[in-house]
From TrEMBL:
The ApeI dehydratase-like domain, residue ranges: 14-112
SUPFAM superfamilies (alphabetical): Thioesterase/thiol ester dehydrase-isomerase
InterPro entries listed in its UniProt record: ApeI-like, Dehydrase_ECs4332_prd, HotDog_dom_sf
Top-level taxon of the source organism: Bacteria
Name of this chain's protein: Acyl-CoA synthetase
Length: 117
């Protein structure tokens, strides 16, 4: 039986009051790889968005329970087990944040989230 995890291994690369850059190592035993897909595991986009919301709570101390919108959401390159991916989170306005996942494999995803006030 595998002990699944729900979050990547994280190290903070850079942080200030408006921006945080995180280095994420994607573990093989990530729960989201289960059945997605058995022959070639791919990190689902919904998990990537969940992590954005989680890290906004952790590093910007915003209440992300009431999401107003997700704008300009793009998934460009797949994320596989053992990838090292950088997540850049930036505060654009008081309640608006941009995010970008990228690595040596290219840009994986990007978008903007607006939190209800």
């Amino acid at each position: 039986m595998t002990n699944f995890v729900y979050k990547p291994h994280v190290s903070v690369e850079q942080q200030d009051e408006k921006k945080v850059t995180l280095l994420l190592t994607i573990p093989e035993n990530l729960y989201y790889f289960q059945g997605h897909f058995p022959e070639a595991a791919i990190l689902p986009g919904v998990a990537q968005l969940d992590w954005v919301m989680y890290f906004l709570r952790e590093y910007f101390t915003v209440d992300t329970r009431e999401l107003s919108s997700v704008d300009a959401l793009k998934f460009q390159q797949i994320v596989r087990p053992n990838y090292q991916v950088t997540l850049l989170l930036e505060q654009i306005k008081e309640n608006k944040f941009s995010f970008k996942y990228y690595s040596a494999h290219g840009q994986h995803a990007s978008g903007k989230v607006v939190i209800a006030r």
